[in-house]
What does this fold into?
Amino acid sequence: MFMLSNFLFAVAKLVDFVLAAYMWIIIGRAILSWVNPDPYNPIVRFLHDVTEPLLSRIRRIIPAFAGGIDFSPVILILAIIFLQSFLVPTLKQMAAAIG
It folds into this structure.
């Protein structure tokens, strides 16, 4: 059973890392939206392509407020923080209970 425990612990660490990296990608996209970046820049295209699927889903549910303020990155970051606070410790506790 120690192998399953180690596997769940590794999955928890991987999920935590991926969520943290994605949060920084969202922050980078939000910062780039304050300036007028070159849309053909590969970094700008990567940030847009990686974040737009989730941000567009949030925008469909919650439209922009007066003045065109888009809160979808904030909502997505809060969802990531929730997952990091709930899912990752749950996986680690499951791994500890098995091992």
The mean pLDDT is 92. The chain has one domain: 2-10+18-98. DSSP finds three helices and no strands in the chain. The two ends are 6 Å apart (CA to CA).
